[in-house]
Amino acid sequence: MNNHTLILGIETSCDETAAAVVMDGVTVLSNAIASQISTHRIYGGVVPEIASRQHTEAICAVADEAMAASGVRPEDLSAVAVTSGPGLVGALLVGLSFAKSLSFAWNLPLIGVNHIEGHICANYLSDNDLVGRKFLCLVVSGGHTHLVLVRGDGSKKVLGRTRDDAAGEAFDKVARALGLTYPGGPAIDKAAQGGDPLAFAFPKANIEGSIYDFSFSGLKSAVLNTINKIRLTGADLPVSDLAASFQKAVVDVLTEKTMAAALETGEKNIALAGGVASNTALRKAMAVACEKNGLTLHVPPPVFCTDNAAMIASCGYFHYLNGQFSDMSLNASPDLLL
Ligand code: KG4
Ligand code: ZN
Questions:
Q1: Which among 48, 154, 173, 328 is least buried, having the fewest CB atoms inside 10 angstroms?
Q2: pLDDT (tens digit per residue) in 177-194
Q3: CA 286 / ligand 1 centre spacing (Å)
Q4: Side-chain half-sphere of 208: how many Cα atoms within 13 Å?
Q5: Is the confidence at residue 2, as pLDDT, over 80?
Q6: Among all ligands shown, which has an atom nearest to the Cα of 278?
Q7: Does the Cβ of 300 fall within 6 Å of ligand 1?
Q8: Global pTM value
Q9: Is 276 touching ligand 1 by the criterion CB < 6 Å?
Q10: 133-299 adopts what CATH topology?
């Protein structure tokens, strides 16, 4: 393994405690994840204080599992990469303190990674050919919605971002109003499968002045108003139809803006990233739109779309190649921008 670069990645920005070992930025040797979803589900969303505590309880075992499953010895590691933001400050601090301790104890360089950049790098794990190539990436997660042009050298230009709610946040809030469990995205995805996407015509926000920016709060309010109006009549909520119609409104706008950006930039490779990229309807709509426009679609498997540490280790590898290291003053940046 001596000719290879082996990075241990650590991720604790939200509700997954994760550690992974990745070789040369693309080959996943291990990918350990302890999910806190069942705990937060009781509260209908992530409780930051509980998330921090659970990260503290889980991080040692998760890192041990990742190291053991990879078969890599600490002395063979090249660096430790850790998410420094954006995310929940208390949750980020657990991963950061842990990674700094490892860096000190095992004498490894420390690399701070931007979580959104990590999501984009998930594509390198499932599609090694994307490394060094230019592509357009739609990042859709619980906290972020970005349309990003990734250049061959890895530098990035943000073409658009959400002005209010992130796509995943809209899924989670609408799901809650529909009485579905947290996290709302997978629950809506499932409920929508038996529903009529044309049952309700929900608005698709277009932002004046910026064609690639997104807005989901108007759509969310429209769905919540519709739910309240139906409730007032005493009728049963048509959960599947509401879920399918809401999902269609989100998927349509994400697909339309991505296609418009692809046509304007001339970019032929389109990639998806983030938890919402696991959405069945989004994957289908993007596949159809890409086929129609002669574009190639890249989508990581769901386990690399939702939060994981393999994507952080992959991102860390590219920082390693560029000599971008952090020191012990590395701090949590809850609002870190891409
Ligand atoms: O990337 P991620 O795991 O964490 C953040 O960085 O936010 O994304 C979590 C988000 C949640 O909002 C969740 O509801 C959404 O991704 N999500 C989905 C699906 N699976 C997860 N949204 C729609 N459809 C899905 N199948
Ligand atoms: Zn994420």
A1: 328
A2: 999 999 999 999 999 999
A3: 17
A4: 0
A5: no
A6: 1
A7: no
A8: 0.97
A9: yes
A10: Nucleotidyltransferase; domain 5 (3.30.420)
Confidence of residue 1 (pLDDT cuts 50, 70, 90): low
Q: Is 86 in the pocket of ligand 1 (CB under 6 A)?
A: no
Q: Distance from the CA of 105 to the center of ligand 2, in angstroms?
A: 28
Give whole-number Cα distances, 46 to 15, 16, 36, 162, 275, in Å. Answer: 7, 11, 9, 21, 15
Residue 279 Cβ < 6 Å to ligand 1: yes
Residue burial 34-60, b: 16+ Cβ < 10 Å; e: rest: bebeeebeeeebbbbebbbbbbbebbe
> What separation in Å is there between the alpha carbon of 41 and the centre of ligand 1?
14
DSSP string covering 60-102? HHHHHHHHHHHT--GGG--EEEEEEESS-HHHHHHHHHHHHHH
Q: In CATH, which superfamily holds the domain spanning 6-120+305-321?
A: ATPase, nucleotide binding domain (3.30.420.40)
Query: Which run of H or of E encompasses 114?
Result: strand 110-114
Nearest CA to ligand 1 atom 8: 275
Residue type for 8, please? Answer: L
